[in-house]
Amino acid sequence: MKNKFYITTPIYYVNAQPHLGHTYTTVAADVLARFHRMIGEETFFLTGTDEHGAKIAEKAGEAGVEPQKFVDEVANSFQIAWKELNISNDRFIRTTETDHKRSVQRAMEVMYAKGDIYKAKYEGLYCQGCEQFKNEKDLVEGKCSDHKTVPQWMSEEAYMFKLSKYQDELLKKIQDDELMIHPVEKKNEVLSFYNQQGLKDIAFSREKVKWGIPVPWDKDHTIYVWADAFLNYLTGLGWKGEEGELPEFWPADVQLIGKDILRVHATIWPAMLLSLGLPVQKQLFTHGFFLSEGQKMSKSLGNVIAPEDLVKKYGVDGTRYLLMSATTFGNDGDITWKYLDEKYNADLANGLGNLVARVSNLLEKNSIELELKINSDKELYDTVLEKMNAINIDEALKIIWRKIAESDEWLSEHKPWKLEEKEEIKKVLAPIAQNILNISYLLLPFMPMVAEKIIKQFSQTQISKSESLFPRI
Ligand code: ME8
To answer: What does this protein do (predicted)?
Structure first.
């Protein structure tokens, strides 16, 4: 039987167009999904859009259009952006789909029947940017640290979810790595939240928010947007909302998220799963933020780089490579155009592109025939596999680029362009051509189009020269 692999991204809010932060998570998930498919695992990759809630209703109002029309348009932009970037998701889920809404309502009924949902008056601070309740302790100078806004005071009747009931069980699962949280600093952050603040019951419905899914037994209430959103990870697999109903692929192997939404993914979401009689996700992997001049790149702060600007400059595969290699996966990284230009020139134009061009040129010019074998460097494969399994995406790339550097050194040392004997030239070029073919195989998940081009080129007996893969900037 084939190993199964299920990977998800957050579903993105459709209050604005996709930006580089969303692109980063989605490309990383795509690289992992492609890698797991390549090594023969039965893979399911889910992404989508989060379309309900006050924030989105407000945006639609400002734009002067009906919320449904507004979300249709923005959701479409996300789908176009992902197509452009060659994202291989198996399904794109939208929380305004009828099936999703029906299953969410069913799930609410299940949790209610179980006694995990009860009515009470709820009061607290609420950040609409996050669509989250906040504690005083979370604020910096009275403001949400992500959105730099003062949270609203909320006071209304609500259906509450008994989050507190799951405190001990979840804490244990996280400690024991039954729910793994990576990197380890993030696990520690979550553990200290459990130990210091602990889980408190939370409002799972809103009276004053109309744009959302109605609570099935009380239509004056709308289901809290995060309760609605989390369930996408199940409804995206065709789950209908029944207790203990285990859809194929659940539990997720990797849920990739940004650090802004770690806490809710490590508290509310797995508690809902327990309430619904389902296993918790196997792993939450948290990456850092893309910063732009030291600030989180975000729609609300208005310092966003659009993915299409990168694609215009570096091409689809160039953009995918730069996003994955620009920073240590898991940490924050400041992105500047200057840095990206330099990295593109060094790694792609002068690195991979130049190596492929030089070697294929010499092979053609000297009519050298070779029989190369794809993926024949077991050691290289194993080290890359190990890094990818640990989701050290940038390190996997570094290993591949070390091979490129070694190949360049070998060529400078042996100078095949100065040799006259065809057999001598062949002896120098053959191992390098073989390296190129092995590298391209491992690059398929990262740069699907370029890697395939190189594989085709280097699988010929008589390799011929190619046009430049990465024109210099
Ligand atoms: O939070 N750097 O949606 P969202 C890196 N709908 N990644 C970034 C980023 C940045 N500057 N900005 C955003 C939501 N991201 C909810 C999720 S899931 C059930 C519901 C990425 O549109 C990162 O993955 O605000 C972050 O977690 C996500 O986009 C937030 O997207």
So the answer is: Is required not only for elongation of protein synthesis but also for the initiation of all mRNA translation through initiator tRNA(fMet) aminoacylation.
272 C-alpha to ligand 1 centroid (Å): 21
pLDDT score of 258: 96
Burial class (CB in 10 A: 0-12, 13-18, 19+), 397: buried
pLDDT for the residue 200:
94
Q: What's at 354, amino acid-wise?
A: N
User: Where in the chain are all domains bearing CATH 3.40.50.620?
Assistant: 4-288
Q: Diameter of the chain by CA atoms?
A: 87
CATH of 4-288, one of 3.40.109.10, 3.40.50.620, 3.30.420.40, 3.40.50.850: 3.40.50.620
Report the C-alpha gap between 439 and 377 in whole angstroms. 9
Top mutation candidate among 17, 50, 300 for ligand 1, by most atoms within 8 Å of CB:
50
Nearest to 330 by CA among 391, 397, 388, 252: 391
CATH class of the domain defined by 337-458: mainly alpha
> Which residues of the chain are in CATH 1.10.730.10 domains?
337-458
What is the reported pLDDT for 299? 67
Distance CA 232, CA 361 (A): 51
On average, the pLDDT of the chain sits at 95
Average pLDDT over residues 342-352: 97
Task: Take residue 85 and report the two structure tokens written for it.
Answer: 């970037």
Q: What angle do CA 470, 471, 473 make, to 5 degrees?
A: 115
Distance CA 364, CA 246 (A): 56
Q: Which two tokens mark 328?
A: 């240590």
Looking at the annotation, which residues are catalytic? 19, 22, 127, 130, 144, 147, 296, 299
**Under DSSP, is residue 317 helix (H, G, I), strand (E, B) or coil?**
helix
Q: Which two tokens stand for residue 361?
A: 């040129």
Predicted pLDDT of residue 232: 98
At position 120, the amino acid (one-letter code) is A
